Amino acid sequence: MIAAIVYNSQTGSCKRYADELSRQLHIPAYALGSAPTRADGELIFVSWIMAGSIMGWKKAKKAGSIAAVVAVGMAPASEKTAESIRAKCAIPSQKPVFVLQGGFNINKLPAPMKLIMKWKTKDIARQLEAKKEKTALNAEETALLKMARTGVGEPADWNAAPVVDWVLNQYKSEGALRQKD
Ligand SMILES: Cc1cc2nc3c(=O)[nH]c(=O)nc-3n(C[C@H](O)[C@H](O)[C@H](O)COP(=O)(O)O)c2cc1C
């Protein structure tokens, strides 16, 4: 049973997804570090992607048993990113890793990260502009290009449906198991 959502958010995207999951699933959401110890169930951990890994993973593991990870990044969601996070954080194969596109806001970053991302976003914009010359960008790539060009932007869609569907299916199968007993 999922007892809570624990999120780690620097500029607001992970909090927004955690709040949305909380609203749709009727499960409380807590900021990492402020969650009560949950002996009555597992957690969904929502955190932001930094250089192909998720922030706060070690601390999150101490908060309780994690049933699923929701990794939020500015790039379009991909299976490759999910697998990279799984490998870097040694997340067992039976635990899902969802990758969702979040927003980006360079103005809310601490100075050292601002500097890194100023350089990084130039590179991202260059690559996407080159791609755009040859082929049409999809909605997530278009959202990323805006973030990279302007330093601020929203994802193509705030879509938490894959996580919501997974949780609801878990309950369904747990219910089915209980009925069998
Ligand atoms: C230093 C730094 C590194 C980042 N690295 C990645 C990355 O590797 N992949 C990605 O998709 N997004 C990356 N991002 C973007 C954030 O993951 C993204 O903006 C996310 O929505 C932030 O979530 P938050 O608003 O909850 O803090 C990076 C951001 C920063 C500041």
Overview of this structure, please?
By secondary structure, the protein is an alpha/beta fold. It has a single domain (2-168), classed as Rossmann fold. The chain contains 6 helices and 8 strands; from the N terminus they run E-H-E-E-E-H-E-H-E-E-H-H-E-H. The strands form 2 sheets. Strands 1, 2, 3, 4, 5 and 6 form a 6-stranded mixed β-sheet that branches. Bound molecules: flavin mononucleotide.
SSE blueprint and pairings:
Blueprint: E1 2-8, H1 13-25, E2 29-31, E3 42-50, E4 53-54, H2 57-63, E5 66-73, H3 79-89, E6 97-101, E7 104-105, H4 111-134, H5 139-150, E8 152-153, H6 161-180
Parallel strand pairs: 1-2, 1-3, 3-5, 5-6
Antiparallel strand pairs: 3-4, 7-8
Bound molecules: flavin mononucleotide (FMN).
What is the residue-averaged pLDDT?
Answer: 93
Largest sheet: 6 strands, mixed
Distance between the termini: 17 Å
Number of helices: 6
- CATH class identity: Alpha Beta
Tell me the domain tally. 1
Decide which structural class fits the backbone: alpha/beta
Give the second-level CATH assignment, the architecture: 3-Layer(aba) Sandwich
**Rg on CA atoms, Å:** 17 Å
| CATH topology heading | Rossmann fold
Relative helix content: 40-55%
Q: Which term fits the overall shape?
A: globular
DSSP strand tally: 8
What is the H/E order?
EHEEEHEHEEHHEH
Any low-confidence stretches, pLDDT <50, length ≥5? 176-181
SS strand fraction: 15-25%
Bound molecules: flavin mononucleotide
